[in-house]
Every structure is written in C-alpha cells, then in structure tokens.
Amino acid sequence: MSQHKTSPSLAGRLWRHLRSTHAAARRAFPSATLKAIQASIGEGERHHRAQVRVIVEASLSLGALRRGESARQRAHELFSRYRIWDTEENCGVLVYINLGDRKVEIVADRGINGRVTREQWQAVCHAMTSGYARGDFQGSTLSALEQLHAQLAAAMPRRDGDGDHNELSDKPLLL
To answer: Can you tell me the distance from the alpha carbon of 171 to that of 63, in angstroms, rounded to the nearest whole number?
Structure first.
C-alpha cells in the first residue's frame, strides 16, 4: 500500500483555497464594487463590439484541487458553461478572477482572440493581480477593465449603425 503525500505546493494551494471563502470574496467584491464593475462593462461596450463577462470565484472545489485543475482550465470551463462563446460575432471575452489561486485569466472567443495579443491580455491580468496584492480590488479591477475596453475598441470598434446589442449580461458573477 502506497502512501500519498501532499506536495508542499499542493498543500499551500489547498490552504489558500480553504481560506478563500465566499465571505472573503464578498469582502473583496462587495455589492458596490460589483455594481461599479457592471457599470464599467456597460460603458466600455458602448465603444466596441465585444461582449465582456466578469466571473469572480472564491475558490475551487476540493475535487478540482486534487485533480490539479488550473485557473486557466476552470476559466475555459466557465467560458463554456455560461455560453460566453455564444455571441453573434464570436466576440465573447471572459475575465475570470480566482481568488484562491490569486490568478486572473482572460479567455476570448475566436472572433476577437487573434486581434488582441497575448501580451495585451497579460498586461490586463497583471494590472488586476498587482492591485489585488495591495488589497485594491475595486480600483485595480476598474482600471484593468478600462485598459481591456481600450484594447477591444481598437480591435473591434463600433461601426456606424451598430445599436445597443448587448448579448451577455454585464452583471459580474460571484461564485
């Protein structure tokens, strides 16, 4: 019979996820912050054709952690589950915030992904995570969303005759 030892990195990850409760996520992203994020998404989408969705998750399940699921894998799962890919121009963008892993992932549909570089997406993620390290969840999220919207406006600007075509909810999800 073999003994399964938890690696130090897995143990640290487990501990971070156990400490990252839904209550802790609510403290980091209170109602006023979620409303400000929603307003930022709505305003930003007036300048481009992409559809942005923000999902904040306190922690992964124990099963996901034991399987070694990454924040990137979870972001792809949520991109599919919430049908962010299901937009007319294939222009859905998920900004996934995983508090337990202290990671931000951006998943973009095929209609937008080739128009924004990996470095540009990473800059948005870094703006958020560096602010989160200082405890500035609202300010860094709003600043990063402004940066994201500028990139999307350059990649997929609104055209004459584009109406208010909002295919995805602007309301951020807190899981």
So the answer is: 28
Coil, strand or helix at 9: helix
Is 157 in a helix, a strand, or coil? strand
Pick the closest to residue 87 from 166, 162, 171 (CA basis).
166
Query: pLDDT digits over 15-63, tens only?
Result: 888 788 899 999 999 999 999 999 999 999 999 999 999 999 999 988 8
pTM above 0.85, yes or no: yes
Cα–Cα distance, 137 to 171 (Å, whole number): 16
Half-sphere exposure of 134 (CA within 13 A, CB side): 10
DSSP bridge partners of 157: 48
Q: Strands 173-174 and 51-57, how do they pair?
A: parallel
Answer yes or no: are the C-beta atoms of 52 and 137 closer than 8 Å: no
Name the token pair of 122: 């990473």
Beta strands in the chain (DSSP E): 51-57, 92-98, 103-108, 173-174
